[in-house]
Design a protein that fits this description.
Strand content: 5-15%
Largest sheet: 10 strands, mixed
Radius of gyration: 26 Å
CATH superfamily of the largest domain: MetI-like
Length: 483
């Protein structure tokens, strides 16, 4: 029976997925009792990477001091702001420090520390812009970063001044949208835009003496949890303000030369200079991308092969199950699936899922569904006479599939496999949204430090093109060998 043939295969795949999940869980558990702290890794001067690829900033220095004085350790989880906040809300992280403004809506979901910084909101345009006042924004489009107090402040003015808003997930893209003239202005926390302008971003603050009320910046934990951590943060913050440590940290990032953190800014004048000064970061990002790609390709191919075999089974149950799985995971956008596994699922099962494990499972389920579809198509495209001839020679359906149909069908699908390999490599970039430090996330962190978006993303694009070209050559060679 075909059903019996697939039971061991399904058992192996289920066991494998559980092994991936449990391995990640054990690794995560081994880190305890330290705290898991999420952050927005591209929000200078609060959170960013320095020239040595170490996470620094006002938030990082305060957190380091709190940990030191209270004798605990922490594991940092840098990612996009919204994902970082959701990690805490769903119990994936113990706290978030990310230049996050305190407001009533957030107090419904989180417990929050005393404010450790009072921020004002500035509005910004290109230098020499004809827009001199907020009234000049009427009919124009303003860029805002999702989830920030500056975005809330800007949105609160849109009806009064008659402008439209356009939202972005990261700061650098928002800035460059204004620089390139796609949007007329943006709203941003004053210390953040100060840092970007000092670092070469071609923007100008309008009326810097007339800032909007951004409110207080705080450290957040999930409501009703980690009360001790919150108490330690508040107690240490008060001590730091009293003994002068707090003022030293603030002055370090707001009043010092930015070369202290980004190194020799002459390196930013060319793509070669940026590549040379950040070669270790690019290499680490490329290695992480390669690990995800290779593991994703191999495991998604195995999963897709199983789905393809199930889709050609005699049993209606297995065919229906294959069709349902393929339809479901092909229909889900990759980023939605990644967020569901990494942020949504732990809130349901009550267990943390490491980012790499979540990213790998995302690739397996999504890419495997596409692989299963074309593998099933390859098997179905084998002339039905081949099956009938095999059966007439006394072979069972299972034997005919494995000895006659599968070999011919797989040969037909080799070009599709090659294409799927390349797609898998490119899709790893989407996993930067859940904090995996692959090539794209590496670029985001470097841009946050040096504000050289064009040059950095040019380097990233060239690296991807080189790797994809090499993968294509290898795949074509393999195709010729097989055929």
């Amino acid at each position: 029976m075909v059903t019996k043939r697939y039971k061991p295969l399904l058992a192996v795949m289920v066991a494998f997925f559980l092994a991936i999940f449990m391995a990640g869980t054990r690794a995560d558990a081994a880190q305890k009792p330290n705290y898991i702290i999420s952050t927005d890794a591209a929000y200078a001067p609060f959170d960013f990477q320095d020239k040595n690829n170490q996470y620094v900033g006002i938030d990082m220095d305060i957190l380091k001091e709190v940990a030191k004085r209270n004798n605990f350790t922490y594991t940092l989880k840098p990612m996009s702001f919204n994902a970082a906040a959701q990690m805490v809300a769903n119990g994936q992280a113990d706290g978030i420090i990310a230049g996050m403004m305190i407001n009533d809506a957030r107090k419904q979901v989180y417990d929050v520390s005393d404010p450790y910084y009072q921020s004002g909101v500035a509005w910004i345009t290109k230098p020499n812009s004809k827009i001199k006042s907020l009234s000049d924004l009427k009919g124009k489009t303003v860029a805002l970063k999702t989830g920030t107090a500056a975005a809330n402040y800007g949105a609160s003015l849109k009806d009064k001044y008659g402008f439209k808003v356009k939202y972005f997930n990261d700061t650098d893209t928002m800035y460059n949208d204004v620089v390139n003239g796609n949007t007329a202005a943006t709203f941003e926390d004053y210390p953040v835009i100060q840092y970007a302008i000092k670092n070469g971003m071609k923007l100008e603050v309008r009326n810097p003496k007339d800032l909007g009320n951004g409110g207080g910046v705080g450290f957040f934990v999930k409501k009703g949890e980690n009360a001790l951590l919150l108490q330690q943060f508040n107690t240490t913050l008060a001590e730091m303000k009293k003994d002068g440590t707090y003022d030293k940290i603030i002055n370090k990032y707001l009043n010092s030369s930015q070369k202290t953190f980004v190194g020799d800014t002459s390196d930013n004048n060319s793509m070669w200079g940026i590549l040379k000064s950040n070669k270790s970061a690019f290499w680490k990002g490329l290695v992480e991308t390669a690990k995800l790609t290779v593991a994703g390709i191999v495991l998604a191919s195995l999963w897709g092969l199983l789905l393809g075999l199930m889709g050609t089974a005699q049993s209606k149950f297995w065919r229906g199950l294959s069709t349902t799985i393929i339809y479901t995971f092909r229909g889900l956008p990759l980023m939605v699936l990644a967020f569901f596994i990494y942020i949504g699922l732990p809130g349901v099962i009550g267990m943390k899922i490491p980012a790499f494990t979540a990213g790998l499972l995302t690739l397996i389920l999504n890419e495997g569904a596409y692989t299963g579809a074309f593998v099933r198509g390859g098997f179905d495209s084998v002339n039905i006479g081949q099956m009938e001839a095999a059966r007439s020679l006394g072979l069972s359906h299972r034997q005919a599939m494995w000895k006659v149909v599968v070999p011919q069908g797989l040969k037909m699908t080799v070009p599709s496999f090659v294409n799927q390999f390349i797609i898998t490599l490119k899709d790893t970039s989407i996993l930067s949204a859940i904090g995996i430090l692959e090539l794209t996330q590496t670029g985001t962190l470097i841009v946050a430090r040096n504000s050289q978006g064009f040059r950095v993303w040019g380097i990233i694009a060239i690296i991807y093109l080189i790797v994809i070209t090499l993968l294509t050559w290898f795949s074509n060679w393999l195709e010729k060998k097989i055929n």
